[in-house]
Amino acid sequence: MNNIDTMSINAIRVLAADAVQKAKSGHPGLPLGCAAIAYDIWANEMKHNPANPDWANRDRFILSGGHGSTLLYSLLHLFGYGLTKEDMMQFRQLDSLTPGHPEYRHTKGVEATTGPLGAGMAMAVGMAMSEEHLAAKFNKENYPVVDHYTYVLGGDGCMMEGISYEAFSLAGTLGLSKLIVFYDSNKISIEGDTDIAFTEDVLKRFEAFHFQTIVVEDGNNIEEISNAVKAAKADTNRPSLILCKTQIGYGCPAKQGKASAHGEPLGDDNVVALKENIGWPSTEPFFVPEEVYAHYNEIAAKKAEDETAWNKMFAEYCSAYPEMKEAWEKEFDLDVAKELIDNEEFWSFEDKPEATRNLSGVILNKLKNYVPSLIGGAADLAPSTKTYLNNEGDFSKDNRLGRNLHFGVRELAMAAIGNGMVLHGLRAYVSTFFVFSDYMKPMARLSSLMRIPTTFVWTHDSIGVGEDGPTHEPIEQLAMYRAMPNFHIFRPADATETIAAWYSAVTSKETPTALVLTRQNLPQLAGSSKEALKGAYVLEDSNKETPDAIIIATGSEVELAVAAKAELLKEGVDVRVVSMPCMDIFEEQSKEYKESILPSAVRKRVAVEALIGYGWEKYVGLDGTIVSMNGFGASAPAGTLFKKFGFTTENVVASVKSIL
């Protein structure tokens, strides 16, 4: 390794240590231990162009161990992605471009928000799947317009988390040979040596996953690291795990190899000792020699040539295959609203009782023709969740063109993989039973935080699941997801509302959407309309200027509200029925619109929903009441359960009367 490489690697270490020390907060251990690995990947292996971080055919790099964010920030600074030295000095400070963990959309060059350990590993699998799918769709002989690798770096914690097991099991099954996983094996976790809780043979585990496994004995030897990458790329049938033996906190005499290097500043004296130990020319904070900057600039200029060559090839490709140019533009065009909003075929449905999960399946198979990037699947439940795209084939090791994804029973990884595919530019949806969305929550949260439009299809939405009993009957899940910022969750009542939910999902640009769908048949409601796109609307109104009361309902309970209105009218009580398929979107409407739907003058309100009532208080107020679940369900036919728990016309009528 020549001197400029050594200096360039140490620049990463110094910047990372100084940033953490100035913030008096952070994790210096990973950046110090992995600096050589990161340098080799970014300088010698990766295709990327700092002048255009969004270049379509760039290699992707995900730092799954997001706590080591100063490693990534140092790279972004040194390679010229727009992070300044002042940004490094503002690490972990309010409104800085260098937050505690890397955040997608916030900092240029960050491919995914990471922090929850293992999440980056699974998102990388989604990106690698996307690359394979797009390559199969668009590449022509002599025109490999989609041809890039996905690199992901994580440590022992990422390997301990179950999400990595799930994701890499699928990656091996699919033979994602352009996925290269770097395992920072320093055998240290926060509580000490990993032997206290983690003694398995990770290499054998990955061999069982059908990965190629490679060991780098010295994680500071860039020649050895580079040879490992060459071996990884040479295997075109399997993804690769490169286990790099490293030392946490490398270079700091008092901290190297110790758990204390993980998550606390080194200390001023130790930062000075680090710099002296590695032969750094100055102890001044954030000092980087000009020759190091010049070296990084030279590398960045060469990296830009990769995109220049690709742009030339892509122009020739578009000329030779004009139909592919059109397909490419349509693939990555997120603005499909204009094609769908007034499309009669899209909004049409059969006027008969139907489960909203079945309606969703019909709509999905219409959408596939309008949204070519639509791709997705279920956690081994597509026949039940109705999420299979007919005549589109199954994505597999032998068929990369398939648009149906088989995730196996792996809900957590499925959600993260879906996020990775959306980050790569596809319109991905993922699906399971609503009660099992509990397994997906951390990754759904990441989609909200990253502001990406992943779609979640969750069926079997209530006690209507019936005989499967309380283990399969969701109760508190809807309230949980409603509590999450930047997350739209629809519980539609009929075909029109289900179409509206899908329209909202595929036209969203920065918000994930969930559809919560019934197993049981529901009638088509005469008053339902595209107004569902506003989150709530008047389904059936009172004849009075000021209604006697308002019944608000979602999903299968809207039918009850309509029936209750009819019964109440017989007794001279005239109420308004409001359908609220998406509380989140309703909250985004103007004050004027919300007042027009739920006028403040009408304080007598009843909310009806066959899930926990938490969250409805703000709509019913002190003078209202809620017909909801107050505990878990039971095992019996759905009709029996709805009666047992009070979801009947008679009980809704009685609830309205009780507050009048």
Give a quick summary of the entry.
It is an enzyme of class 2 (transferase). Keywords: Calcium, Magnesium, Metal-binding, Thiamine pyrophosphate, Transferase. The protein is an alpha/beta fold.
Structure description:
By secondary structure, this protein is α/β, with parallel strands linked by helices. The chain has three domains: 3-304, Thiamin diphosphate (ThDP)-binding fold, Pyr/PP domains (Rossmann fold), CATH 3.40.50.970; 337-522, Thiamin diphosphate (ThDP)-binding fold, Pyr/PP domains (Rossmann fold, 3-Layer(aba) Sandwich), CATH 3.40.50; 533-659, 3-Layer(aba) Sandwich (Rossmann fold). The chain has 26 helices and 20 strands. The strands form five sheets. A six-stranded parallel beta sheet has the order 10-9-11-12-14-13, sandwiched between helices. Strands 1-2-3-7-6 form a five-stranded parallel beta sheet, sandwiched between helices. It has a five-stranded mixed beta sheet with strand order 16-18-17-19-20. The longest helix has 31 residues, at 290-320. 52% of the residues are buried.
